[in-house]
Design a protein that fits this description.
The chain is built from 18 helices and five strands. It has 422 residues and is mainly α. It folds into three domains: 32 residues, no CATH class; 204 residues, Citrate Synthase, domain 1, CATH 1.10.580; 107 residues, Orthogonal Bundle (Cytochrome p450-Terp, domain 2), CATH 1.10.230.10. The strands form two sheets. It has a three-stranded antiparallel beta sheet. Strands 1-2 form a two-stranded antiparallel sheet. The chain binds D-malate.
Length: 422
Amino acid sequence: EFLLKHPKGELPLPVREGTETPSGIDVGGLLKETGHVALDHGFMNTAACESKITFIDGDEGILRYRGYPIEELAEKSTFLEVSYLLIYGELPTAAQQAEFNGKLRMHTLLHEEMRRFFDGFPRDAHPMAVLSSAVSALSTFYQDSLDPFDRDHVEMSTVRLMAKVPTIASYAHKKSIGQPLLYPDNRLGYVEDFLRMTFGVPAQEYEVDPVHAKALDLLFILHADHEQNCSTSTVRLVGSSQANLFASVSAGVNALFGPLHGGANQSVQEMLSEIHRTGGDVEAFVRKVKNKEDGVRLMGFGHRVYKNYDPRAALVKKAAQDVLAKLHKPDPLLDIAMRLEEIALADEYFVSRKLYPNVDFYTGVIYKAMGFPTKMFTVLFALGRLPGWIAQWREMIEDPATKLGRPRQVYVGASRRPYTPI
Ligand code: MLT
């Protein structure tokens, strides 16, 4: 049963790690020894790719962008510097950064016709749906930057996306709360202006809280890339058909929409609120998770690639503590989150399953302290992930070896059946 008929001969069927073959060989070990068994369900998966952008060692809990450890970038760089690094491959000099920021400032405004586009959405539309539609619509308004093989077009679509997505994201929020949209103010920094457009109101001075701006900048850095995750592989797959950057990124936004990917921090926040609402008994909650009672699940723990602490989670946890301490805003949900982590990390059940907090575990606490509604959490993830999507798309387009993506499908349905009319 472990053999798959294949034109090149008989190949082993993809089986899960740890599965015992009839001869009693652990398949996980066999993979390392002979390379004959793919653990990937789509054996010989053609969506696999090489990249020079992000390095992850999930066993050691290491994450690097272009060779720089995430911890160092989080401490020493701004989000725009990290965006430059991801997209162009090098940390910028002061002159390069000033030029990049200047270009972005020239493109923060949306086409006036796009306002009518926003008007057409129902007020209760999820801001992520508005974001993906608006990003897709950029292809209609900016037809001078759609050619993936023209350097100037690629550069213009890169700049336009980086500049306009914060404007679109804050418009999506304003739309959902029925407030008028605010025009960008290019005297402010990237994150600062996004906060003003999101939380400010017309004709009133809005003072950006530097603690909020710093924390959001950090969160964007931590979300900026994570190699072949669901949304990034979508951007690459769509882009491999030579679709333009706006269309490819809009597909990535949609891939991020789901609760298992970008929506995960929203699920964590809902779980923490539920524990709080029902009396805050964390031990009882953990017991339920272990006994799989009432379909209770521990959200924000475990990660497909990290079998160790997600390095981003450690940085987010610290930022959450700092933000709440500086704002003198105790949050019972943060206390519940930390208690949950403490109990889980001391429990053999979670340790043996290598279930550690991931990046989504503490992010919602910070977003909430800043005043973002839960529906905006995924949009914030998209804002942070944007330079990663752009960098991955550009790397793929620039590689002459890129082929049209076509992940393998293993047919497991009925074999040929005689046609019998009903
Ligand atoms: C991400 O940052 O994209 C998430 O951790 C999900 C992933 O990497 O698969």
